[in-house]
Design brief:
Length: 308
Amino acid sequence: MDWTEIKVTVPVDRVDEAGAIVSMTVPYGIYIEDYSQLEEDVQEIAHIDLIDEELLSRDRTKGVVHVYISPEENPAEAVSFIKERLTAEQIPFEIDLAQCKNADWENNWKKYFKPMPVGEKLLIQPIWKDKVDAGGRTVINLEPGLAFGSGSHETTRLCLTSIEKYITKGCKMLDIGCGSGILSIASILLGAGEAVGVDIDPLAVKTARENADRNNIDKNKYTLYNGNLTDKVSGKFHVVAANIVADAIILLSSGVKQFMDNDSVYIVSGIIDSRENDVAEALDKNGFEIIKRNEDNGWLCLECMIKQ
């Protein structure tokens, strides 16, 4: 089967930042087109001054990040991840999938995605697969669609594994950057009395609502907002989870306490290991204590509480 090519076009002065974000989606690398210093680079590398006219005509104000997604991975999840994090970093972007040879890129990955146990209590059940014996685990029926959060990415699995430890019967849970809704839906299925999900992407909110319906979640227990956290959400929550990106977590750390009680837990994931110190410093500065550090394949999930 063909691999899926994703091309992300951004302003050339933001291409390195965009490349760092896109590289989080795959373990095997990316390549970047940047023609802003074409003549200088060609002269330095090849020691010639004759350059193809097609190259010279390229837009020097834009850079393009290319990444290839293997057939067994979900291209839609990679695209959602990239969109969400570029938006959080306020990097203008265009995403092009026109070069994909495989016309059914949204669905071909599904044949590889099997029911998946997560943590001690959960089992993710893709809705297009036959039901399996859950062995006493709580089942999440899931169709991630074009939103992030199928459970296959390390950040989501880490977050779910942490959440299941803290959900108590009747508690309230806040899911920041809810994506497919997997974290908040899991929380209700595990016994939370109420969950709120918020996401800047309207498609994510739509997908989360559809997944809630698939799991027979009472609409009175699950509220979804499209927009920014502080503009939409109010109240206090026992468990607050943010499976997003390091810089967004850093920004959130100064204001998220308004949604927490002194004994609430704040679970943050989506942190690449090279950004751990930055996130830890921001959390400490804003009055949080990291009580547990979890890691999987270079990704981190931190469990935090307000310093007493």
